[in-house]
Amino acid sequence: MSSWLNRVLAPREWTLRDRLAVLVALAVATGVALTGVAAWLITRVTVFNQLDSELVDIAAITANSVAVDISGMGGLNTNALRAANVAVTLVRADNRISTVPGATVSLSPGSEELSVARRQQGSSARTGAASNGQPYRIVAVPLWANQQSYALMLGRPLEATNNILGTLAWSLAIFGFLGVGVSSAIGFVIARSAIRPMQRLTEAVTHVTDTSELTPIAIEGSGELADLGRSFNTMLNSLHLSRERQRRLIADAGHELRTPLTSLRTNVELLVADERSRMLPEGARADILRDIAAQLGEFTTLVGDLVQLSREDIVEPHPEPIDLRDVVHSAIARAKRRGPSLTFDVELNPLYLIGEPDTLERAITNLLDNAVKFSPQGGTVRVLLEGDRLRISDQGPGISDEDLPHVFDRFWRSPSARNTPGSGLGLSIVAQTVKAHGGWVKAGRSAEGGAEFIVRLPGNASPPEEETDNESTGSIPKVTS
What we know:
CATH class of the largest domain: Alpha Beta
CATH topology of the largest domain: Heat Shock Protein 90
Shape: rod-shaped
Strand order of the largest sheet: 2-1-5-4-3
Radius of gyration: 51 Å
Number of domains: 3
Distance between the termini: 79 Å
Mean pLDDT: 80
Helix content: 40-55%
Largest sheet: 5 strands, antiparallel
Number of strands: 12
Oligomer: single chain
Order of helices and strands: HHHEEHEEEHHHEHEEHEEHEEH
CATH architecture of the largest domain: 2-Layer Sandwich
Structural class: alpha+beta
């Protein structure tokens, strides 16, 4: 029995619904108990005050009659006492007691009554036992007769009053228990209704854990639990998108890595076979080694691009502003080494922003490499930084209308570029980097018919030092947008 009780009362065995129901029941029980006790006490005080007031009035009237005839107790008899349902006792200041002739019930004086007799002022009221052992409400009023100080004690049995108070106490207790029971049932229903969204959320979490299925839960109503459910669905959606990106990246990476790995393996196997049989013609071995070196370079670039795309963290603001002109100049210097026959028409206006110069330089380098790759011999690559927009255009064949929506997709390469070097990740890195810096990038056609990329990066045309000076003089710096 004790072990069962311990299991029931152990907090770790209770569900949240049970705890809420118990808390509601305890709160209602406490309220009912306090209300019942207060109601009973107030009723008791009111009844006794009313009874004392009535008895004091009767005692004062009786004292006037008794004062005229002390020896005969004012003509009182047992019939009169029985009719008034009272008991009368006269106590002198020296504690001498007189009773109504023939009375069967007398009252024993106490210190309160003797004090009234000796001081001859005020009155007293108390609960005490009469000579028959029954509880009485006893009052005393002063009485002066024959140069003697008296106190007239008058008492009324409390049996009827106690019965009324007992009935009231039982009624309050019974209806209180009924109220607690009803409130407990209502509390259980309310707790179950309130916890239902949390139960669905728990079931959803368990389902995701057991099956790895990211199924959203149905949201009903409003409030904190509904907000929690919506946040959970948002988290599931983010997990689903992340899982899809990972799955797509792994699938695409596996497909793209297979070709260079196969080519490398074939060339290495040829070199190994040539070590045994010397079957390759003169100069072929050197060509294969150069081919392997080139493939390793492409393979290294591909792995670097995959690592770059796998980063989905937010760009943290750099404590020092970036002058985008410096970043673009560094990227152009790289591109010139890869396209020595091309002309670079460069016009750069100031643009200062907060970001990562290395990732921005790589993104701009990718755009310039794309222009170098598709520009004809002796062509011109135009680079214009004006306001918060960077334009890079070339004189190549351009991008067809059907290819424009896909140029920033991972591993996507147009049919005309399938035989050119590259992994198809460069423009994806550009889009990811620009988005991480709060901007956007678009692809289109240049005026010469080639490809044109427009990059928008939020920044300011004046450096921070000038902005501070402008603020101190009360002027507002101009921001190009």
